[in-house]
Every structure is written in C-alpha cells, then in structure tokens.
Amino acid sequence: MNWISNYVRPRINSIFSRREVPENLWTKCDECGTMLFHRELSDNLNVCTSCDHHMPISPRARFATLFDGGTFATVDVPEPVEDPLKFRDQKRYPDRMKTAQRATGEKEAMLVATGEIGRTPIVAACQDFSFMAGSMGMYVGNAIIAAAEKAVELNRPLILFSAAGGARMQEGILSLMQMPRTTVAVQMLKEAGLPYIVVLTHPTTGGVTASYAMLGDVHIAEPNALICFAGPRVIEQTIREKLPEGFQRAEYLLDHGMLDRVTPRTELRDELITITRMLLGLPPAIMGDLPAPDATDDAAPSDDTAPAA
Amino acid sequence: MTHYLDFEKPLAEIEGKAEELRTMARQNEEMDVEAEAKALDKKAAELLRELYGKLTPWRKCQVARHPNRPHTRDYINTIFTEYTPLAGDRNFADDHAVMGGLARLDDRPVMVIGHEKGDDTKSRIARNFGMARPEGYRKAIRLMAMADKFNLPVITLVDTPGAYPGKGAEERGQSEAIARSTEACLGLGVPLMSVIIGEGGSGGAVAFASASQVAMLEHSVYSVISPEGCASILWKDSEKMREAAEALRLTAQDLKQLGVCDRIIPEPMGGAHRDRDATIDAVKRTLVDMLDSFDGKDADTLRAERRRKFLDMGSVGLAA
Ligand SMILES: [Zn+2]
C-alpha cells in the first residue's frame, strides 16, 4: 500500500554529506568500509574496487561513460505545472525542489539524452535517485514520454535506467497518473517496433517498478539492487515476520523470473551494445572506448537530426 | 444495525433516542411518542445534512471505507443480469480479492471486473480486504483480452486499499502484474469504463482504472498513497492523516478539476451506505450513459482517445 520505504532518507543524507566535503579525496565504501580514492572510484563507475558494491552514480556521470567519447545531447523535457496541488506538508514543495536542485545541480529526477554506444545511435533516459529519491512526478513522466517520442522520431532504441523510492507524494494523484502515462510511452515504442531495454538500478521501487520498469523487452539489473513494489519494511510490518536474506534483491528477482540478467555496471555498456545491435539486426560492434562520433551527430547541442541506424 | 463513524456520534445519539422512543411505544400502547420521535427525526436529518454537506477529505476517506457501503458484489448482483463469474489466472490461482466475469448491462453483454472487500470477518479474510495479489491482476488481464477479442465493453469497479504488501505477492511479480494490467487497459480496442465506488488505492487501483472514462462516487477517494501512509512518511506521524488527506487532494471533487475523474455520481444524503439501492441505481444509470457515449467509435479511435487523455493529464493544476 505504501510505496516509499523508510530506507530512502538515510541514503540521501549519506549522498549529500559526501557532496558537502568536496575536498575529501577519499570515499568510504558503505558496504565493506574500505577507503577508496575518488579518482579510482569514478574510473570504476562508482563500484567499490574492493567488494564490488555498486554505489549511486549520477545520470551525467553514467551517460559520460555510456556514450561513445562521453558525448551526448540532452533532450528537452516539457516543463510541468509547478506544485500543481499546492501541496502543504511540513515543508513547501517548491522549497523541497529548490533544495534538491541545489544539492544535485539538476532540474529534476530524470535526464534524457541522445548519443551513440558502440556507434549505435540510441536514446537514453536515466533516473536520478539523489533528486528527491528519484520519485516519479509529472516531470519524470514527461521525460519518459519525451524519450519515447524522440526514439520514435529518430527510429532508435530506448535504454532506460530506473531508480526510485516511489511516487512523488507532493504531486498526489498526478504522481500516480504517471503509471498509465509512462505505459503509453512504452506502447509507442512497441508499436514502432523499437527495442526498449530497462536497466534497473538500486533501488527501483513502488509505482516505477509497477509501470515502465517492468515493461521492457529486456530487463537487466545491477547486482544487489533492491527491486520491489512494496518495500521490505512495509511487508515485514504487514506479515509480522522477518524476510529472508536477499529478498527483493536483483539476484532474487532473477531467480523468480522477473529479470533477464544481472550485470555488473562495469560490463553493462558492452552488453547493452551487443543486445541492442542484435535486436536491430546490425553487425557486431567494434568494442572499446570509441571517440565521439563526428559531424551532424549528437554532440551538436542543436536539434538532433542524426539519421536512423 | 447502523455502523456510525466517529464524526457521526451526535447523530447516533439522536437517532438512537428516536429508536428508543419507538421501541418503548411498541411495548406500551398507551404511550404516544410519535410527535417527539418525529421531532428527533427532523433534527437528525438536519444534522446529517450539516455533516455531509461539508465532509473534510479525511471524513470522505472514512465514508469511502464504511463497512456498510455497497461493494462490488452488490453492484454486480443488482446492476447486471446473467452474471457469470470467470475464475483464475491460468497460471497460479484464483484471487478472491478480484471478481470478474461476463454479464449483461440491460441487454448488452459486457465484461465486468472489480475488487471485492467482503462484508464480514470471514468474507473479508477470504477476499483479503480487497487487496489483490498478482493473480488478481493477471485474471483481469485475461478477462480484458477476452473482452477485446469478442468486442465486449469492459466495466471495472474499483474498491481497494491497494496492492497486497506480502511476500508471495512480491515473489510472484506483483509489479509486473500491475504494469501489465495497466498496459492491458490502455491497449483495449473496446470501451473501458471505471467507477471508483469506495477506495482507489494506488497501483492496485490504476491497474483497473486506466480507463476511457472514470466516474467516482461523490464520497469515494483515489490516491497515490493512503493518508496514514503519507502522514507517517512526510509528517513522521501516522496520526496526521487528516492533514495528509487534505494535502493529497484525493476527493472526487478535486480529481474532477485535475481531469483524473470524468464524472461524479452523487450519493444519497448521508453517504452510499444510507441508501444502497439508490446508490447502485445511480451507478447503473451512469454506466449506461457512459456506454452510450462510445457508440460508433472503432477500436483505433477508442485506443487513441484513451491514450491522449492520459498524455494530456496534469497540464492543469489546482487553484490555491
Ligand atoms: Zn566495498
């Protein structure tokens, strides 16, 4: 019943407190406690080099390592009405938004971009857990619709990275309505015959899991990601029993048939290229770090007019 | 035996007194209490109008969850003829939290699907309090596909606190089941009409209510989260449910302004439970009217219009 679990808050705090000490060149792995040098950690896509724990990664950092040459063009997302319900809890919604915007440097909880991976043109969308727990409101819905429309317009696959604590409660019913809205977006891709690949990252919960995150042609999760509808705490409170170790984690969902694969972040890019190119009927890709594609490409910040693959 | 809600206490006193007088008069024929009892009736009616004329959002939640409120089973048995229940998801089980089957609305065959909460302890447990498990959504998906195949309009009756937060429900992929059910709603080439008859609780409701037209009973609610759940997260205090209910804008009246609800079906004075027959009749008239409004529309038009409605949703906010 209750989408957002309480684990969300401490998580955000830990991300923020790290940000507030930019001079700190070391990050402590919250899983194994190893002190990791920043550069080393970011080179390894925020995966602990000691225990393989997958730490959060921002959409921009993810895109920088996903796209050829780290080059991508962001796709404009139609701005929704600000604070549509004039929501009042202990803090004003616009104030919560400003705090999140300052902390992340982003406008909202999803970033959409076009670019190439292994010389394969794609559209990608990435949800930002550090922005109000990645919660799904009108903007996130608009972003997914914009991503699907862009993919259809350019005849490209859509690769979506999900991460969310659940619904944007401050948008009430309009948050809930993103479930059907984003489902319409997925249907557009389906009808255009375009691949839709979902990468489920930690954590993907609530209405996000129960809509676009579970409607992919291929579902890949990062190791140990929590993926659920109702969070573990809510379930424990309801059934009054302790849940087994690893319940609702990626490997558990793989065992229960909800995922195709669990893939470490460091191997994800190659795998996405391989799968995408096969689904599109393209020859095998040349793997490795490719330079940015040239001319009339996605690197141009102007309107994306790259020809379809 | 009338069940009174906490805010109806003064009403319970007056109605109780009138009842008491009449009982006394029946036992003692010498007594003439009718004038006094009638005066109490009048007072009760006035109070009822006063209370229900300005129900707060939290009180609407209480009315929407009223145990005597008509449930899906009551609507199905009264509105339709030839109701033929169809069971099972052909995969794991039959979910008793979800009723569904073929039926006739007047003479027209339709597919009807709805959450059923149950009416007493035994049936409530059997129905899991109207909280569907994955099998419930998968049964609904199967029935919707059948309706699509045989060109039958689909009617869904929504009355659920939400999806069931249980271990098995998660293991059997309730997220996927809800997502696919929503997708099934949006892919139908036949009319899909939903009526929120009580509680429209989060994803469990959306899975049935991603409809061409959504009607809501006057005091029903539809929300992303229960007021108690919202209060415990945002206020850190589940007792702040009144504030949360206010903030969430979950009433039929607010949702109509937001374009989430297309029609409001008025309830009898004092709520649906005070005159169940009149409520069920009003729902039937709305269903017939909604069904008529789809006459002459082909599958592509129905699908396109439904999707457009959801894509456009949220472009207008509420006034302060
Ligand atoms: Zn580690």
Write out key terms for the chains shown.
heterodimer, A: 309 residues, alpha/beta, 2-enoyl-CoA Hydratase, Chain A, domain 1, seven-stranded mixed sheet, two-stranded antiparallel ribbon, 11 helices, 9 strands, globular, disordered N terminus, disordered C terminus, B: 320 residues, 2 domains, eight-stranded mixed sheet, 14 helices, 49% helix, 16% strand, binds zinc ion, metal-binding (chain A), cytoplasm (chain A), zinc-finger (chain A), ATP-binding (chain A)
Notes on the protein architecture:
The complex is a heterodimer of chains A (309) and B (320). Chain A is an alpha/beta fold. Chain A has a single domain (57-279), classed as 2-enoyl-CoA Hydratase, Chain A, domain 1 (Alpha-Beta Complex). Chain A is 35% helix and 15% strand. Chain A has eleven helices and nine strands. Chain A has helices at 8-19, 38-43, 59-66, 93-104, 138-154, 172-176, 178-191, 206-209, 232-239, 250-255, 265-279, and strands at 26-28, 35-37, 72-74, 110-117, 120-127, 158-164, 196-204, 218-221, 261-262. In chain A, the strands form two sheets. Chain A has a seven-stranded mixed β-sheet with strand order 3-4-5-6-7-8-9, with helices on both faces. A two-stranded antiparallel sheet of chain A has the order 1-2. In chain A, helix 5 (138-154) packs parallel to helix 7. Chain B has 320 residues and is an alpha/beta fold. Chain B has two domains: 6-54; 61-312, Alpha-Beta Complex (2-enoyl-CoA Hydratase, Chain A, domain 1). Chain B has 14 helices and eight strands. In chain B, helix 3 packs across helix 11 (241-248). The longest helix of chain B is centred in the first third of the chain and has 20 residues, at 34-53. The relative contact order of chain B is 0.12. The interface between A and B is large, with 59 and 63 residues. The complex binds zinc ion. Zinc ion is lined by residues 29, 31-32, 34, 48, 50-51, 53 of chain A.
SSE diagram, text form:
The complex is a heterodimer of chains A (309) and B (320).
Chain A: H1 8-19, E1 26-28, E2 35-37, H2 38-43, H3 59-66, E3 72-74, H4 93-104, E4 110-117, E5 120-127, H5 138-154, E6 158-164, H6 172-176, H7 178-191, E7 196-204, H8 206-209, E8 218-221, H9 232-239, H10 250-255, E9 261-262, H11 265-279
Helix pairs in contact in A: 5-7
Chain B: H1 9-27, H2 34-53, H3 57-64, H4 72-79, E1 80-85, E2 98-105, E3 108-115, H5 121-126, H6 134-149, E4 154-160, H7 167-171, H8 174-187, E5 192-201, H9 202-209, E6 213-217, E7 221-223, H10 227-235, H11 241-248, H12 252-257, E8 263-265, H13 276-292, H14 299-312
Parallel strand pairs in B: 3-4, 4-5, 5-6, 5-7, 6-8
Antiparallel strand pairs in B: 1-2, 2-3
Helix pairs in contact in B: 1-2, 3-11, 4-13, 6-8, 8-9, 10-11
Bound molecules: zinc ion.
